[in-house]
């Protein structure tokens, strides 16, 4: 009779396992305490202010006592909660004045406090994936006084940076790297027989969509690397999540969607409490069976099987804002002698504790200065023209309206690339693949194989992550994928991790790729139209972060003929590989000034500035300044438009008619200027000594955070630097001689 009861009970338990997530964690005695689940509210502090207007505590007595993590060790749980409250408002108050990545930091306040309380940095290693959520970490690790300089020239970085602090275990800015780095640290600690080995990777549900994360988890389970992976699950995979696309409006991650559905299912919540009660009633000879049921149930209900099959011990999902649970769980994991890697799954809310962020579609992910009391952005002067990103998006809509084969692809950046605009018009032709640039490129290649015309829209800095796919899957097979590189060049406050300065070098060395770069918004429209019609080779359009120019600038400096100051709304295809002369010696209209018409008759007094992309505006200004400063010189300015193929006829003419050619580009060494120099040298234009050539590029070094203007100044790419380069080559100014 007893055996039949056991058998019947076991069968019932197995049937129930499909919806059960047993309370018994089974990892070194670890027991997960739910305490009311994710809906629980702490009574100690009012987490969400009732405003508006919203305001934080007038004083921060606990935070004032914490300069480094070691100062937290004596705090009790109530003080830790108070510290979290004060820390949240410290972040808010500072970012409202500087701008930055706000909501990601607000979502990990409690996690940051718990990690620094439990672990011993810098001996223990905490690796923040992407690290845009590192603001509370920086405040707790000796950088509170410098925090007002966030993302400014000579200030602290908006990302973790090893050279900035010993508490920044690993530099970041791009995603999906944390698990690999933490695993490498763990293995190194083991090989070096270090006394303690606690390595923690904090990764979001967006970053974990990147394939590198799974490569690392696969290897961690194989090597049995002692490490903790904290999965920070906030349901915000893309920026913004919710953009209409072929996959709907949900997060571009089936894993995130799956765990989100489970977290809100009522049976999940109820059965955990039920399972807790019956667990102790089972006889000892049922414990092993119960353990297997528990493992199976946690996999079915919470997604644990995926991670456990990769060799991880799965704990969760848990409320990532509940310090009552986070602290003891992390302590148990820290003290466990097991070498098996652990995945701790936390459910958090991006923008937590600040209602304007909680309510915003993008959760106020990246913000400029804003009114702390209302959350409203503090707007500066109205830009003279739309952003280049929106110009691109609307241009793509124009060509897609006439061509149903055109599709748009983004890698979790619909807002940054303009794919959110395109997606609202053509949701079924918009594809957000998550943070998966490698997949995005080859996905586009597959589409091209079947006759679609894919536009693969990725930040220049992130396209680096898919470079092998560009070479192997697109270029080698000569597939007509259109690669749209937004944020090409210097990007401002995000600094060196986000500069798009290398694409001309890494794209330019690939055979049979058409590479073009617009100088203004009219040219951007034209180049999108041009790219849409290229069906016999891969193509690249790269353009910088920023806005177009006002109509008066387009007319008076760029010499456009605009009727009623109206900028054309439709693009016109331009001839492949053909540049344009923007300014002849003497200016745009030498007829108005007879002296200008006759100036620089000799080649020795003629100079050419050959611009590629965004620096044309500065080149035209420099030309006017040079001629004003030295009436004997005549300056021609040309817009190359294309790096590949080069307009060799135009360059030949410039080389034959001028004594100096200066190329200007917003890119690194190895880009446009080097292609021009290669053409000039291989064709003998520099052999007789009658032609000097200088490429002006971004220097071979790292340009740190600051405004774009400050970065152009540091790079030496503004009008005054172009003017100085020309005048030095013509020996019109003295060059200081460095003393020994």
Give a structural overview.
With 740 residues, the protein is α/β, with parallel strands linked by helices. The chain folds into 3 domains: 63-287 and 304-367, Thiamin diphosphate (ThDP)-binding fold, Pyr/PP domains (Rossmann fold), CATH 3.40.50.970; 388-551, 3-Layer(aba) Sandwich (Rossmann fold); 580-731, 3-Layer(aba) Sandwich (Rossmann fold). Helices cover 39% and strands 12% of the residues. It contains 28 helices and 19 strands. It has a 7-stranded mixed β-sheet with strand order 9-8-10-11-13-12-17, with helices on both faces. It has a 5-stranded parallel β-sheet with strand order 2-3-4-6-5, sandwiched between helices. The protein has a 5-stranded mixed β-sheet with strand order 14-16-15-18-19, with helices on both faces. Strand 15 (606-612), helix 24 and strand 16 (634-639) form a beta-alpha-beta unit. The chain is globular. Residues 1-46 and 264-287 have low confidence and may be disordered.
Brief rundown of the structure:
The chain has 740 residues and is α/β, with parallel strands linked by helices.
Report the major sheet. 7 strands, mixed
CATH architectural category of the largest domain: 3-Layer(aba) Sandwich
Envelope shape: globular
Poorly predicted ranges (pLDDT <50, ≥5 residues)? Answer: 1-46, 264-287
Strand content: 5-15%
Strand order of the biggest β-sheet: 9-8-10-11-13-12-17
